Amino acid sequence: MPGKRARRHFSQLSEFERGLIIGMKTAGWSTCRVAGQVDRSECAVRNCWEQWTRECTHAWKTGSGTTRKTTRREDQRIVRQELVDPTVTRSTIRADVGAAIVPQTISIHLAEANFKSKHPSVHSV
What we know:
It is built from 6 helices and no strands. The chain is 52% helix and 0% strand. The mean pLDDT is 77. The protein is mainly alpha-helical.
């Protein structure tokens, strides 16, 4: 469609872009004009400006990630299972821990504990 900008999916505003938006809006620019200048959607510009006017900050809030699905004890059990038997599967670990989690969550917890991938590298001699 002519005249449409390509969307920038799933990319968040950088600190620099947030500063530009706040500066331009403070100078009296319209949301549409600011969006065109920084190549972002009007919605993203509006949200940034609203956060600035509401909280007087443009920084992301700390701790705004997803909530943990496992307890510390369950995390320790996941790591212990890997230590005892490095060939154990993720679904076996999930069954042993007894938590309703997906295998990807187990992989994330093992990566946090500095365990490598389940697929060992192949060394040829």
